[in-house]
Amino acid sequence: MKSLPAEKSEFLRILATRIVPETSDLDDAGLDRFFEIIDGALLDRPETVRGQFATFLGVLKWAPAVRFGRPFDRLPGEHQDAVLRWFEDCPVSILRKGFWGLKAMIFMGYYGQPETNEIVGYAPELDGRARFHA
Amino acid sequence: MREMEYDIVIIGSGAGGGVAAKELAPLCADGVRIAVFEWGAKLRDDEYSGREVDMASKLFFDSGGTFTKDRTMTLAYGRAYGGSTVIYTGTSLTMPEDVVEDWDVPGLEFADLHRRSMKYFEENNVHLLSEEDINDNNRLFLVGCRKLGFNVEQFPINVKGCRGSSLCNLGCPNQAKQGTDRVQLPKAEALGVEVITNCRVTNIGDRVCEAVVADPGYGEPSKWEPGEYRVRAKVVVVCAGGVVNSPGLLLRSGFADGLPMLGRSITLHPALILVGEHVDPITNFHGFPKSYYCDQFMKRDRFLLETCMYFPFVTAKNLIGFGAEHSELMRAFPRLQMILVLALDPAVPENRVTLDAHGDLVIDYTLTEPVLDSLHASMLASTRVFFAAGARRVHAPAGTNFFIDAADSDRVDQLIPRANVKPGKISVTSAHLMGGCAMGRDVSDSVTNGWGRVHDIPWMYVADSSLFPQCSEVNPYVTVMALADRVAEGIRNHAGELLS
Questions:
Q1: Are both B34 and B111 inside the same structural domain?
Q2: What backbone torsions phi and psi does residue B219 show, to the nearest 5 degrees?
Q3: Do A100 and B322 lie within an 8 Å CB cutoff?
Q4: CATH number assigned to the domain comprising residue B140
């Protein structure tokens, strides 16, 4: 990724497996598309927003050390989910918003791929009218 | 920097700019030179791929995800030949009489606005879809609302040859939607108006605009070579760049000193997308996506319910939660019914478009407690509609659980507590941006008069939804066209004086 350093993009991949479990099933091409879409979205944003996103990833990685004594990527899955749920409902609004932004990026990277439309059963057609009259 | 000269320069080509261009175009026969500057590209017909991320990046500012300053909302507004008319659904409503009265703009009468709105109904082929062309997603909304005794109306829509791709919000791949890209701009160009795409106006001086043309790498090439331009507008400049860019451009150009209300009192119709899951597949992404609305709660609870059908990424980001439950609901896509709720937000001066310390545009908008109350009430009403329509379970963004089962439908009030409506947690979006260059009496309460003429700047007009002094309470594009029609008439009426 051009928008994030390598260790941050690897951490993003780990987070993605908790947020959209199907990202674990992506092949190399699918993962490339996942990162390409997120990269494109981040590069379109001002540098300050990219910086805030990278900072939030750092907070998310190290915040669990306070409670669990280990960073996020060394926690078992259920503890990782508990951390993410805490961030999603966090009383500190800036952390809630950061988590919302993270989720949106990961959803974009996965569900924004035309290749994943089939998995969710989404198959629009130019002539949708004919299809539903059929 | 290249020098150009026109008599009339129109900035923006959406519902406002496109109509202003078409209405002023007959002046070209008298030798008046008119240019429209559009920031976005003119896509070729074969570039409307229907792919969500691809189309969002080509047709929307910030791919449809412009943040408000406090990051509690994202805004979706268009950037293309045709502006936001390329990416709306084409639902065509006229503004209610009581709302026009509440606007209280001197000289702006309901009858006049309504007459002009009807003109654009005619011009844009507005009609009701026949019953057999209404898919299950829409039909179930009607069923649910009627069971509950809620009033439902059908949206008139502005399509011609619609094939029901359901991709309206990604630009119609069948060229059926009658936006300004299909109707008003081609008419204007045929009469001699020049439309310059990929052209961003960066500054307005005294009848002079500075603009930059860039090649985005897609769409038809701009009529002008990439580069910087200084364009003299001998007679009039019409700002029609929308709620963010019209006030934003005027603020950047230094007009704030004489116009204290510039950028202020924006309203956004804050919106939520809600999802109900049925047992069996329904027709949802086949067929026209938006056919009905429920106005039952407009006056008391200040929200509208509308049918809608969105795409996988937009749907995913509007759900609360993550992981297995989220994936389970996404995989039920062919069984999903969707409802869009719009809160009817008040115009308060603190909600505004402004500039930060670096001169960058900021949309400073706060979701007020009454608006959050409306969003909460809309979730309760929508959940009841889903269950009345036969949904097996519902996902409400403020629900205590990810799913609410039909067996719990009598406990909706408890399962969707008001305390869970947390800005920054739930996805709140806007596609109806209004205000910022409001019409009114004088500089103390507004930016323009009732004809869109900027106070104390006789050569500057505004012709877009930034003119709205309060929200329209209905989908706004027809009202934008009616107002732009008035603005153009005002310019024509003063043409002699202005041209001399």
A1: yes
A2: 80, 175
A3: no
A4: 3.30.410
- For B163, the token pair is 């094939």
B118-129 per-position pLDDT tens digit: 999 999 999 999
Residue B321 forms contact with A (CB below 8 Å): yes
Distances in Å between the Cα of A3 and the Cα atoms of B178, B279, B375, B425 are 39, 42, 35, 25
Contact B72, B424 (CB under 8 A): yes
Q: Which of B287, B324, B332 sits opposite A132 (nearest CB)?
A: B287
Q: Write down the pTM of the prediction.
A: 0.96
Provide mean pLDDT across the span B293-297.
98
Cβ–Cβ gap A45/B165 under 8 Å? no
Q: Is the ipTM of this complex over 0.90?
A: yes
Q: What are φ and ψ of residue B61, in 5° steps?
A: -65, 140
Per-residue burial over A64-80, b if 16 or more Cβ lie within 10 Å, else e, is beeebeeebeebeeeeb
Decide the pairing of beta strands B2-11 and B227-239.
parallel
Is there a single domain that holds both residue B96 and residue B206?
A: yes
The H or E element that residue B9 is part of is: strand B2-11
Structure letter (DSSP) for residue A2: -
Place of tokens 């691809």: B54
| Statement to judge: residues B74 and B211 lie in one domain | yes
Residue B500 has pLDDT above 90, yes or no: no
- How far is it between the farthest Cα atoms of chain A? 59
Query: CA B207 to CA B230: how far, in whole Å?
Result: 11
Query: Counting one residue from A and one from B, how many pairs have CB atoms under 8 Å apart?
Result: 132
Number of residues in chain A: 134
Tell me which residue range forms the domain holding B87: 2-125+167-266+434-499
Percent of chain B with pLDDT over 70: 100
